[in-house]
Sequence to fold (353 residues):
Amino acid sequence: MSITKRFYDNSAAGTLVHIFTLKNSKGTTVKITNFGGIVTSLMVPDKNGNFEDIVLGYDKLSDYEKKGPYFGAVIGRYANRIGNACFELNGAEYRLDKNEGENHLHGGFIGFDKVVWNAEIVTRNGAEALELVYRSKDGEGGFPGNLDVKVTYSLTEDNALVIDYYAVSDKDTVVNLTNHSYFNLAGHASGNILSQKLMINADKFTPVDKASIPTGELVDVKGTPMDFTKMKTIGQDINADFEQIIFTKGYDHNWVLNTNGNLKEKAAEVIDEKSGRVMEVYTTKPGVQLYTANFLDGSEIGKGGVPYYKNAALCLETQYFPDSVNKKNFPSAVLKAGEKYNHTTIYKFAVLK
Ligand code: BGC
Fold:
């Protein structure tokens, strides 16, 4: 595996931004920019050895800077929503950016997806890896504590994109980091993902209210359109007459993973039978957000001038559950001062035999 670095563009604020290309001996190639830690391209082979770019994105840095779907980005300090954009910690109330109505979404007005990270090519387990470092200052987005964050991307010889997240804070705080790649295993320009198949290793999900804030319940998926315990096409139940799906115009929920932090057990799997491409997801996190790109409407013009429409991709964002900072029964996203936040998520690619 090798990593090369090239100039991408200057950010609006005049900072030099680069693109790093990670390539293994199989020809699998991942491009990542140190603006937002964004995965801008991911070329993986199909069953006949043909490579296709399977993530949505833009050509220009200025589009990543201006636009809002979080294509490919690192999300932080807190992935997904926090109800009423506030939470309490150690008896103090923290008021966060209200960047989605009354609520907080994906880190606020300037989340980790909209900042320039320091990038370095390092050696990890005998292979090169891309290390991205960012200091989120005390009070940024409303969160307490200076938070030093490190996200390390590596690509293995067996086609796994490994993302290691690390953070440490000088005050008690909350942290929930994820990656927001939009995957379409048939190719980013191929249309919708409704005929692709999905398995999520979860017996429960966390229902939401009309504003997509979890109600706090953990509900069985059995007998509902939310059941992905057995592989089914994403389109099978996506238009079901089911309140949760109506609220979010498709899937946009957190599943409670049965894997419970075990990186060795499969958390989710996507199959595109036509191309034969397969993606497996492994994670140390307790939850995963399945988002079926419900809010894309053709107005986002992506790479190569391709308009992205509804359901053009799916995101599998591994995470603590949304709004866990206000839900005592959800696994806690609190990070004590000096404690280490360490998580890993793996997206592993293969082909059907
Ligand atoms: C959220 C969606 C949101 C999308 C970003 C997902 O993680 O769950 O509701 O629209 O990110 O655009």
Remarks:
- Residues 69-70, 80, 212, 252, 289, 291, 295, 317 surround beta-D-glucopyranose (CB under 6 Å).
